[in-house]
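DOMAIN: structural biology
WANTED: fold as tokens
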Amino acid sequence: MTHPTPIRRDHLSTALAIAADGIPVLPLRIHKAPFGNCPTCAKNACGGRPNMKQAGPCTCPRPCHAWAAATTDPDVIASPAWVRAWLEATAIAYHPGGVRLTVVDLDNADAITWARRNLPATRTVPTTRGQHWIYAGTMPSANNVRPGVDIKSRMSYARWLGLGTGRMAPLPDVVRALGIRKPPAPRPAPMPATLVGAVEGACPHRTPAYLERGIAMAEARISGASSGVHNTVYGTFLAVLSAHGRCGCLTEDHTARLFAAAQAKGESLRHCMDAWTNARNRLGI
């Protein structure tokens, strides 16, 4: 359903009132998305805005540059280019980091329940599907920090839905910790050379694609195991070694891929090594 023009015109007066309180605002179009960059600024050709990562001399009068377009300047907000944007806008957004705020965006009932159990009470604003919890202080923004939870602060925007209720609390460490990205899981340790098929000689498989297809199928078989994982791992190792263990074409990279698939299903490195050794012994390799 489209909004009639009078409601859209009201976005301009509301935006001016919000900006008068020192809160930088910007218009949002359909699906709560910011207006795209104009042709002059496409692909950051203008050099960016001073408050973006890429500082530059941009003086574009249009609401470009997403969150970085947010402003409190009434002359910009009411300029002809912005007025046209307000007429098309479906909502108003603001830059929380611009007023030293952090918004914890709780997107559903489960996320709200989690917040009530784990976060200190603060000012709350109801949203269409959940709530915004607003804290005093800034931090890097981050999406999907846990199911149904986003953090909007620096270099981000949040939909303006009013002042909310409750006393605003300082930004707690528990929220800051949510924004810290965990390092990627370490790669499996390289397999000892003694674990790799070791019989010298020309590979009879004629094309590397044959081996690659076999390793990929083995990974899929292990990954798809729903029960009896240890037996599946051993049987898969046995099949791979029976097909490729005597020609010398298996490399440490191949065995590392198989071990990684097994470890992803809960097998320990020790169990992987034992299964590999038992399979080699059974085949007399």
In short: The CA atoms of residues 96 and 153 lie 5 Å apart. The longest strand covers residues 101-106. The longest helix spans residues 5-20. The chain has nine helices and ten strands.
